[in-house]
């Protein structure tokens, strides 16, 4: 019996259609998916979604720093600040959803504040494979 707090299960064909559509996603499509879910800190994010989002984020950051160096003669100019602030929430959300996909709490994201070792541990967590079982954050993302 479902109560008001539990959403009804999705039909199986809806899940299959979503995965079929994601099979044709390119790098920009994964980035846009991360942007659309910019405040969604629940659920799960596939490894592909996280790493493509990270790659585009890194590319935009390098591009912004280059433009700032050319125009403003500094590495931390206007474009870098806009990219950094604009992508802060989406990158945090996709990182937390990626941790959920590996059956870890989003609070593990804070381990990145531990100098040197924290970033390495977080990198290992993010590179880990999707846990195939349904967990408290939902069914597997792939």
The average pLDDT value, as a whole number, equals: 85
Which class best fits the helix and strand makeup?
A: mainly alpha
The residue ranges in which pLDDT falls below 50 over 5 or more consecutive positions are 13-17
Number of helices: 6
**Helix and strand string, N-terminal first?**
HHHHHH
How much strand?
under 5%
Count of strand segments: 0
- The rounded Rg comes to 17 Å
Task: Give a short summary of the structure.
Helices cover 57% and strands 0% of the residues. With 142 residues, the protein is mainly α. The protein is globular and about 50 Å long.
Any overview of this molecule?
- It is built from six helices and no strands.
- The chain is mainly α and 142 residues long.
- Helix 3 (47-72) packs antiparallel against helix 4 and helix 3 runs antiparallel to helix 5.
- The protein is globular, with a radius of gyration of 17 Å.
